[in-house]
Amino acid sequence: MLTPRRAGAALALVAVVAATPLAAQQHPRPKRPAPARHAAPKIPTPKSILGFDPGDDRKLPDWPALVRYFRALAEASDRVDYRELGKSTLGAPFIAVVISSPQNLKRLGRFRDLNARLADPRTLSTNREAEDALRDGRTVVLLTSGVHSDEVGGSLSPVALAYRLATDTSAATRAILDNVILWLVPAVNPDGVSIVTHWYNRTLGTGAEGTSPPELYHHYAGHDLNRDWYAFTQVESQIVADSLYDVWHPQIVMDLHQQGPNGSRLFLPPYLDPIEPNVDPLLVDGDNALGSAMAWDLAGLGRTGVAINALYDAWTPSRAFAHYHGAVRILCEAASADLASPVDIPFDQLSAGARGFNPRERSWNFPQPWPGGRWTIRDIVGYQTDAAYAMLQHAAANRSEWLSNFLSVGWRGVRGWRGWPYAYVIPKQQDSIALATLFAVLHHGGVEIRTATQGFGAGGSRYPAGTYVVSLRQPYAAFAKTLLEPQVYPDRRQYPGGPPERPYDVTANTLPLLLGVTANPIDDPGHLQLSAPIPPPRAKPGYPGFGPGVAPRVAVYRSYDATMDEGWTRWVFDTWKVPYLSIVDSTVRAGGLKARFDVIVLPDQSPHALLEGLPGRYPAPFAGGLGTAGVDALRQFVQEGGTLVALNDASRFLIQTLLLPVRNVLEGVPDDEFYAPGSIFRMELDTSAAEAHGMPPKSIAWYEGGPAFDVLDSTQVRVIGRYPTDPGALLLSGWVLHPERVAGRAALVEVKVGQGRAILFGFRPQYRGQSVASYPLLFNSLQIR
Ligand SMILES: [Zn+2]
Asked: How confident is the model over 548-565, as a mean pLDDT?
C-alpha cells in the first residue's frame, strides 16, 4: 500500500489550497474580442489541402501533406500555433501544434511557468503562490497520435479535431479554448505515415490492399516505438519527453491507437489490473474517472460498442510515461478496418474471447454492444475525434480539480511514500557507457541526479564523496524507483489453479540489471550532504574489434515479414558502430554467402515466419520467406566456415532446419507448465569461451518466450551460458511460473557445423536496445573466426 509518510507543512499547504471554495478558484472569464465573423471562412478545410475529407474511404495523407495542413491551419487561425520540435529518424519534420484561446496563446510562456511550478511544488514558497498558480493556470493536455502508423485513424483524427477546434463557435468549444492548453502531436512517428500511405496507395485495388507494409513503419523500432517511453532510445520519444513533457508537464495525456477489428469499437480506461504499484493512486482514480466520463459522453452521442476496464493493464512503464509524471493517461483504442478500406463484421464474428468483457453481451463496462456491420475509416475518425473532444470538455470543466490533484501528486513525490527507500546510491566506478545510459534515461524522465559531497555510510557500506545519489524525495521519484528496483509481478491466473493471465506487455524493467550497474537502495542516513543536480555523465557507445580493416563481414537478415527485433538489432549495431549489411530473401536464396560474409545474424522470428514469410497476396519480391533454397544456402554458408547467430525464436529455426544436436526443452510446453512473459533471468557464463570474453561469470538474460537447450552431443556443442540449477535463483525481475523447467538448462550454446558454427541464443541479448549488460555476448559472437 502506498500511504503518505507524514503530514508536514507540505501537506498542510495542499489542504489549504484544496479547501479554497471552487468558485474562488475559477479564473475570471477573459473578455473575448468580438467574434471575427469574416475569419472563419479563411480557415483551410482539410479537403482544400489534403484533397479529401478525413474519413473518406481509401484515402490517406502522406506526411508532407499533413505538415502543409497544420502549417496552413496555424497561419489562418489565431487559436492554433505550429512548432517544429526536431527531426524524425529519417529526417522528416517532427511537429506539434498548440491549440487554445487567442488570449491564452499570447501568454503561453506565463502558463508554462505556472504549470512548471505546480509540477515541482518545491518552487512554491507560500500558500499564496500555490493559490495563484491554481487560480490562473490552465489544464495542460498532451494528445499524441500515430505512434503506430498502420493505425491510420491516427493520421486523420488530429486533422479533424484541430479543424473543429479552430472553427467551432459553440460555447463548449469556447470553454475548451479558454480553460485548456492542448499540445497536439499529429504523428509521434512521422516517417511511418508516409511508409504506410505509400504502401497503401501502391496496393490499392490489388490483392494486397489493406495489408501492412513489408517493412517496419518505424525505421528501428516498428510497433515497439510506444514501448520506448522509459528507455528513450529513439529520437521521437526523446523529442516528446524533452520538448513537451519536461517543459509543459501535462495533467492529461491521451494517446490515439487502434485495436483489432473484432472487439469493442473503442476502448477507454479504467485499465485492468495489475496497475504498477509505484503509480500514484490519485492518477489511477483520474484514469478511472476521466475514461468513464468520456465513455458516458460517447454513449450520449449515440456511439455504441464502447468498452472500459478491458484488455489493457497498466503494468509496464514502457507505455506509460505519463503515469510517472503526474498525468492521467488515456489510452484510446478504436477498432480497425483494413487500413482505410472498409470491412464488414457480422455480429456473430465479434470475438467472444475478448478480455474483461464480451463484445456480444451487455455488461457494466460494455453497456451497449455494437450491432455489427460495416466499419470504415470514417467510423474510426468519428469515434476518436468524439473521444478527444469529450476528454477536452472534461479537462475544461474540471480545471481546478485537474490542477489541484496534479499539485498533490507532485507533493507526494517530493515528500516520499511510506516504505520507499530514501534514495538509490550508484557508485561512480562502473562501466561508463552503462552509467551514461542509465543517467540519460533518468534525465529524460526529469529525475534529478546528485552526488554526495562527503563520504557516508549506509546499509553497512561506506560510500566515498562523489557517489551518485538519486533521491526518492523529488517530483518524479516514482519513475526512478520503478526503473531502479526489481519487479515483483503478481501471480495472476485465468481462474484459480488455471493457466496464467497474460500481461499486456512484458513484466520487468529493472535498469541496473539490464545495464549491469550497481544501484543500492538506502534508508535515510541522517546527514547526507548532496550537490545540486548535475548534468548526466556522457559516454560514446563502442566495442573493440569493429574498426576499419578488422571488422568481421556481418549480415543481418531482414525479413519482409518485418520484425521489431531485426530493427532493434540494427539500432544497436548502428549505435555501437558495428558495421553490417542487411540481406533479404533473394540474397540468401542466391547462395554463395561465404564469399561475402563471415557472420549472418537471424533476429528473433518464428521458424514458420522465417521459412514462409509473407503470404501470396503480397506482390513480388515480398511474398515467401527464406524457403528451402534459403535454408540450403544457410547450410552451405555454415558448412564452409561461416558463423550463424540466431536470436531467441530463430534458434528454433536453426535447430529444426540444420538438425542440430540440441533439444529445446520448452518445445510445445503449455503456458501453465512454464511461463515468463518478458522477465530478467540470472545466467551463469563460461567466461573461457570467446563468446563470453570480458563478461562476469554471473550475468543476466532477457527471457521472452525463447527456447532453453539440452545438449544431445557434447562433442559438437559447447554451453556458453546456463540458467542456475537452483530454480529459486532463476528470476531476478518480473514473473516466472515453474522455473524448474529451465533450471540448469543451457541458455546460450555454440554448435559446430562443418567448418563453421551456429551460435544459439535462447534469450534476447539486445532487448529493445536496453539490455546493455548482455550486448558483449552478441558482439563477441560476431568476431569468432
Ligand atoms: Zn497502437
From this structure: 97
- Helix then strand then coil, in percent of the chain rounded to 5, is 35, 20, 45
Identify the H or E element spanning 24.
helix 22-25
Confidence of residue 4 (pLDDT cuts 50, 70, 90): very low
How high is the pLDDT of residue 134? Answer: 97
List of residues 6+ apart from 88 with CB closer than 8 A: 94, 189, 190, 191, 235, 236
| Cα gap 490→141, rounded to integer Å | 32
How far apart are the C-alpha atoms of 436 and 695, rounded to whole Å? 19
Say what the pLDDT of residue 354 is: 79
Q: Measured in angstroms, how far is the CA atom of residue 412 from the centroid of ligand 1?
A: 32
How far, in Å, is the centroid of ligand 1 from the Cα of 257?
4
Helices (H), 168-225: 171-179, 190-203
The helix/strand/coil state of 706 is: coil
CA of 569 from ligand 1 middle (Å) equals 22
HSE of 354 in the Cβ direction (CA atoms, 13 Å)? 31
Find the angle CA(366)-CA(367)-CA(368) to the nearest 5 degrees. Answer: 100
Task: Order across the sheet with 423-426: list the strands.
Answer: 450-451, 468-471, 423-426, 520-522
Q: In the predicted model, is pLDDT for residue 34 greater than 70?
A: no
> Which own/partner contact pairs does 209-215 have at CB distance under 8 Å and 24+ positions apart?
209/338, 209/339, 209/341, 210/337, 210/338, 210/339, 210/341, 211/338, 211/339, 211/617, 211/618, 212/150, 213/150, 213/562, 214/560, 214/561, 214/562, 214/614, 214/618, 214/622, 215/560, 215/562
CA of 233 to the centre of ligand 1 (A): 19
**Separation CA 78–CA 75 (nearest Å):** 8
- DSSP secondary structure code for residue 126 in this structure: S
Q: Summarize the confidence of residues 773-785 as an average pLDDT.
A: 96
Check: CB of residue 475 under 8 Å from CB of residue 414: yes
How much is the pTM? 0.94
How far apart are the CA of 254 and the centre of ligand 1, in A?
Answer: 12
Report how far ligand 1's centroid is from the alpha carbon of 503 (Å).
16
Residue where the block lists cell 532463476: 730
- Nearest-5° Cα angle at 759, 599 to 509: 105
Span from the CA of 333 to the centroid of ligand 1 (angstroms): 7
Distance 259 CA to ligand 1 centre (A): 7
How far, in Å, from the CA of 86 to the mean position of ligand 1? 23
Taking only the tens place, the pLDDT of each residue in 291-307 is 999 999 999 999 999 99
Do the strands 272-275 and 139-144 form a parallel or antiparallel pair, or are they unpaired?
Answer: unpaired
> Cα(728) to centroid of ligand 1, in Å?
36
Distance 159 CA to ligand 1 centre (A): 18
Cα 148 to ligand 1 centroid, rounded to whole Å = 5
| Inter-residue contact 743 to 726 (CB < 8 Å) | yes
Residue 151 Cα to ligand 1 midpoint, Å, equals 6
- Report how far ligand 1's centroid is from the alpha carbon of 580 (Å): 30
Phi, psi for residue 207 in degrees, rounded to 5 = -65, -20
- Within 713-771, strands assigned E span 717-722, 731-733, 746-753, 756-761
Q: Which three cell numbers stand for residue 442?
A: 533518468
Long-range CB contacts (< 8 A, 24+ apart) of 453-460? 453/529, 453/530, 453/531, 454/529, 456/525, 456/527, 456/528, 456/529, 457/525, 458/425, 458/520, 458/522, 458/523, 458/525, 458/528, 459/520, 459/521, 459/522, 459/523
**Distance between Cα 334 and ligand 1 center (Å):** 9
CA 357 to ligand 1 center in whole angstroms: 20
Ligand 1 centre to CA of 364 (Å) is 25
pLDDT tens digit sequence for 599-625: 999 999 999 999 999 999 999 999 999
State the pLDDT at residue 38: 47
At residue 785, the pLDDT reads 78
Whether a cis peptide bond, with omega within 30° of 0, leads into 697 is: no
